[in-house]
Amino acid sequence: MTRTHCDLDADIVELAAFVPEAEARETTPLAEIAFRADAWLPGETQQLKAAFVQDHGLDEIAGLLGRSRTAVATRIHDLGLRRNSRRNWCDWEDEELACCYSNEPTATLAARLARGVSAIYARAKLLGLSEPAAQPYSAWEDVQIRAGYTRGVPVAQISGLIGRPLSGVISRASMLGLRHACQPDDWSDTETARALALAATGARYMAIAQMLVEEGFPERNSRSLGQHLRKLGYGRGWGRAWIAEEDDLLRHAYTTGASLTPLRKRLGRSSHSIRWRAEALKLRGTHVRRDGFRQGPVWTAQEEARLRADYGKIPTREIAETLGRGLRAVLYRANHLGLVHGFMRPFGSDEDRAIRNAWLHGVSMVDVAQALGRDPAVIGKHAARLGHRFNDPARPSRGPRTRRASRTPVTLESLLALDPPDLPIAA
């Protein structure tokens, strides 16, 4: 029978309930003790759970039950409740996160704040908190890994659920002696871990299969390799719904101009998923770094104005030297601004008349190029198409050359005025 993986719904934040070992053991009857006035009654617990499911804040639940926020938070932690909350983060939660993020496992902190682990990671990144050192796996995390491997949940979804890297989950499962339900019998744990590690480098499946063979593993084709990795949860994002904390983190990246590459690794999202969500949030074009992450300084308004004024009128290399930029950078920026090089613009009827008159009256091709603001080679090629070759021996002669300094500058108007054959062009 073919096993298929089990995708998780977006609202799932826990695969299996964790029962502390102390509660799981059989206990002897306790002696009767005096009733405490602050004890939690069954009715209060049910009210708390109902308000929690309705996504009420801790302050709201505390006001409803007539208890302090600390008491409500402690009771939620003791009950092990977790949720993908849609509530905004309050100052108290941010302070608690900043204080404890690097000192205790994220899963424990998520339980105390009644948030999902992925929400904790996204919020911590938004607040600029440093990555904590790898904390030991908690009993709750081990329970989720066991349940996920047994149910055939993709490993990538398990890692996103508990907030651990993909490779870390695989290593922990191997230490626990677990075998994924979707793993074929002919794949060893070592081969699976190695294939996932190579896939994380971005190598193609055919290249991964070849590298595995070179390392002594069985020969696989790219199709079976890809199917196996996808069953285990490898992919460029696994289609889960975006939560509010992830949206806030994406907005923050676009506002501050931060690189999106660490964001993809943090959220476990593909570049396509990041772009799709940015478009959905209407973040396209709002990135503070207009040039993206190309090397070199950002173009200023003055530089763009200079480029608009000179592009196509003087050689592009001179523009690049003046602006202190590379030739390719200038060409890219001109294309981005929609500028058309003057040497490449189509010839108009007046320019065609000017070229014909210049050919008939013996005006040099260099003077025509200067008058029309084009390259002499472009003028020569276009004149040849019109049947007027400037290097043709049969071309009418202009007479003896004079020094350029003593000649009248040639302009488009002076060339057009040569239609009457008796009008001289130069002194």
TrEMBL record:
Residues 388-409 are annotated as: Disordered. It comes from the Bacteria. This is Uncharacterized protein.
